[in-house]
Amino acid sequence: MGLEVLVLNPPAVAGVPYLREECCTGDAGPKPSLPAQLVQVQSFLQSKGMDSTLIDMQGMGLGYNNYKPEGFDVVISSASVFGSLYHDIESLRIAKRTGAVTALILNDPFEGVEKEVMGDCDFIDYIVRLYEREQTAYQLVRYLERKESVPPSGVIARHESQILDMGKSQCLRDARHLGDSSALLQALPLKNYGWKCTVSGKGCPSRCTFCLYRSTPHRSRRPEDVVKEVEVLSTEPDCIGLLDLEMLVDKTFARRFADELISRRVRASWHTDARVNNCTRDMLMRLRRSGLSYLTLGIESASPAILENIRKDITLESVERAVSNCEESGIVPVACFMFGFPWDTHQTGNQIVGLVKKLRLERAAVSIVRPLAGTPLYDQFKTLGLIGDLGTSQYVSNEHKPMAPTLHLPKEEVGRTAARLNLAIEDYAFERRIRRKFLDVLVHSPYELPTKAVNLLRYHLKRREAIKQFA
Question: Please, what is the Cα angle at 18 between 220 and 33, to 5 degrees?
């Protein structure tokens, strides 16, 4: 008899759902998101013949009062460092009381956080590290079943009163070992999710100094498997997210994925992330025919000097070209910026707003820089004397707040400036939306104009209030 394994997505935090994906964490908004990473873990364990069960407490609207891990030998739970860590790991504290072996998948795992959490929480037996977590979870359960003496690579283990770091697992050549999980997706409460997503690939070969996943090989899954999962998710009308730091870097995968969606006549609206350097017109046209609606572009800054300092390896000219290619292809570009780099000033912030207006972007946002331990950016902050050593509690409690000053702005002003930039971008985007909607409704259904205008205004005011609360 093998061990019975529970793969768990913990409950929402005081009614607020959280994203707990490998490279995407934090407040998820009013409705929960589909736990794509845990679906892949569960699918891989099942493909190896293991007796495992996936329970998405957040998606089912359950709280810890409904949590009963009795009967499971191993509990593998997911957690987000930012905002919800201490809430999320409560799932393992409860499981430990029942005698289960406990393992944590900690997302956005900056250097040192996993060992610190292990040291503080004696109810956690193992932490599953980067990079091939699905395979590492399987190897961990197999190690426990066989009662082997040495823990597998890719974990941090509580072993004979010591905490052993077995190192990160080696990146595989691709992610084709993650097979079709469409049957698992069908069993989930899809109507409950505000964001339905699946994993199409992992890793990013780019050099960005702020990123935990920089300079790692990109690994794509089999296009056919991802298409089957999208087909299941397309039964709901929402736009489907493909979690992938840089899908378009693998042009073969992108083409085959688009062609497979088209040949199978899967009518789905989907979105993913891309670097501006890979947004060629021909590729975007092809992807648009397959249903690509939105493309998130990590631009980060409108200052050429800052782009060079963070090794973004893009130019403002390449940004303009990518946005133009998106618009010509009928794809909505979603621009992501960051503010609070050591060299940021009020002027570099204003340059972000200026670029948004120059490119006529209706979807753009500014997040606050987080100097993550283990990244070159963290070392730059320390060398410049802007931060000391940052501990886990500081990351958990500063989900929406600046963690450091810049060379020119105090920490509090970084937060105020980021909020001001977001308000300016939202006001500009509202003007763009209202003009476009006005012309569209005026031509096609003028009688709906008052209702549409009121709805747009309500959405705009709601967005402004949400931004102000982080000022």
Answer: 55
